[in-house]
Amino acid sequence: MKIGAQYRSLRGISAVAALLAIGAVGCSDVSDAVDSAKDSAKKVTRQRSVFSLDIGDCYNPNGKVEGTAYAVEIVPCDEAHEGQVVGEFAIDKGKGYPGDDGVSTIADTRCPVEAQKYAPDTWALPKGVALFYYTPTKESWATGDRAVSCTYTVEKGTFSGSLGTAKSLKPEQTTYLNGSNAVYEALWANQSEKDAVEDDLAGYKAQAKAVAAALDAHVKGLDGIEGTEVGKLRATLTKAAGNWKKAANAADADTFYIAYAPAFTDINPNKSVAARKELGLATTVPADEAEVWAG
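The structure assignment produced for this chain is given below.
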C-alpha cells in the first residue's frame, strides 16, 4: 500500500508539471497544453491501488500487462480500456507464502472458475482478451495481503463495455453454459503431462472419468431445455459420454485409443454452434479452441 501511494504521488507531480508548462508555451499551443494537462489530471484522479480492486472494475494498466504493479487507472466501462476485474478470492491465510510459482498455480486453477461466474460465455469475449491476475508478492504477503484479482485483459489494443453478462442471461442459457464450461474444465484440468497414453494410462483414464461425469451432468441439464438443435446436441453428447466411459474403463492403451477418438470428436465445440444459436448465445468458436480440434 505504501508503494502504491508513492506511485500515485509521482503521477501527481507529473500532472502539476504539465500544468506549470502552460506558461512556457506560445498562445497557439495553450489549448493543446490545457487539454494535455486535463488528461493527465484525470488519469491521476483515477488511480487506484491494485490492492483495492473490485469485481467489475474496468481499468488501464500503468505499464506492461505483466510484471509488478502498484496502481492502475480505473475508467468507466463504456470508455475504451485494456482490462476488467472479473473475479477475486483470497488465498488461505493459514499458509506461509507459497512462492511465486505456487501463487501462480493457485491463480491458474481458481481464476478460470471465478471468471466464469461473472462472464460465463467465453465465446462472447472480445478478440484478444486473455485471463490475467494480480497476486500477492512475497513482500505484500508479509503485510497480510492474500487477495487475488482475476482479470480479462488485452495485451494489444482496447475494448469497450462490461464483460459481466451473468445477470443478464436467461435460465436456459445459464444452464447450458454451466454444463458446457464444466465439460471443458474437466477435460483440461485433468490433462496428463505425458503426451502418450502408453506413458500414463491411469492419468488418461482419470481424465476420461472426469469428462464422462461432467457430460452426464451437462446432458441432464439439457433435458430441461426445449429446441430441435439442443435435442440434437443432447444426443451427440450422450454418445460422447458413453465413449468417455469406455475410455475410463479401458484395460490397455489400444482399447483406450479406440474409445477416445470418437469421444474427443463428439465434444468438438463446432458441434454446439447450432444449439448455441438456438439459445441466443455467441456462435464463434474461440481461436484457441478451434485450433485444438482443427488438428
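Interim note for the steering committee: The chain has three domains: 1-45, 54-166, 169-294. The longest strand covers residues 83-90.
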